Amino acid sequence: MSDTSKNALDYSAELLTIYYDSGHMVDGRSIWSREVRTVPFPRWKFLDFAGFDISKEKPAGRSPDEIHSAIGLKGDDSLFNWVVNFYSTGWITCDDGPGEVADFVHVSQEGILSLIHVKGANTRAEKRRIAVGSYEVVASQAAKNFVSLDPPVLRSRLSAPTRAACATWTHGVRVADRAEFLDALDSRDAGDESRVVIIQPHVSELIYDTLRRPGAHAGTSEDYYRLNLLETLLNTIRGSVTSLGADMDVIGSKI
């Protein structure tokens, strides 16, 4: 370990966390190993991303305002545009940028609130291997904003946007501001469902089913271990979400 790395551990307890495929982590001043279990994550949803680039998180733009303006324009094949198309009913607003609560926030016609966090796949290759790191990044972003599951906190943060224009849609039609979205948010009942949604299409249904097929692996392959490591992470994060009265979905790709 270099002197620089040692100094980082000695003096910056919250500077970074480094994850290794072996399951070991360097976290602040500690080096430790995560317990890896073989319990599948129960809320995978494998959906169709045909026509979209699963490795492109958002449209090109030099600033958050430019990115917000570009979502849904002709030729936009980013995951941001996929989100807008998939959540084409109800009310949805993009909050991407510094201080965001999530990449998108959606309120369905049934009152279901979804905080949506998006991350592009590492590659578009059909035979993608399990990659834990990309999920750790987006899961940590989601965990950082669990406080926004509290309706008054969310309402306060979204009613005072940090940028000039926040891309917002009502039933699939782009609108000028968040007025209708905030009305929909305010109209929810206390018992309405809340969800954290992680969209990271790197894991495909084909690879997942192959690894989880009974008897397909002796439990020693690298990808099988990585999948167990990933699902341990997702189950841990979901436990924090359910303790707040919400639940968590993770969206992967059909292929």
Main beta sheet strand tally, sense and closure? 8 strands, mixed
Strand order of the largest sheet: 4-11-10-7-6-5-8-9
Kindly provide the radius of gyration, computed on alpha-carbon positions and rounded to a whole number of angstroms: 19 Å
The count of DSSP E runs of length 2 or more, i.e. the number of strands, is 11
The fraction of residues in strands falls at 15-25%
Mean pLDDT value: 88
Helix and strand succession? HEEEEHHEEEHHEEHEHHE
How many helices? 8
Basic shape: globular
**Helix content bin:** 25-40%
Low-confidence sequence ranges? none
What is the terminal separation in angstroms? 40 Å
> Structural class, please?
alpha/beta
Descriptive tags:
single chain; 255 residues; alpha/beta; 11 strands; globular
What does this protein look like?
With 255 residues, the protein is α/β, with parallel strands linked by helices. Helix content is 32%, strand content 21%. It has eight helices and eleven strands. The strands form two sheets. Strands 4-11-10-7-6-5-8-9 form an eight-stranded mixed sheet, sandwiched between helices. A three-stranded antiparallel sheet has the order 1-2-3, with no helix packed on it. Strand 6 and strand 7 form a beta hairpin. Helix 4 (132-144) packs parallel to helix 8 (222-242). It is globular, with a radius of gyration of 19 Å. The N and C termini lie far apart (40 Å). The relative contact order is 0.18.
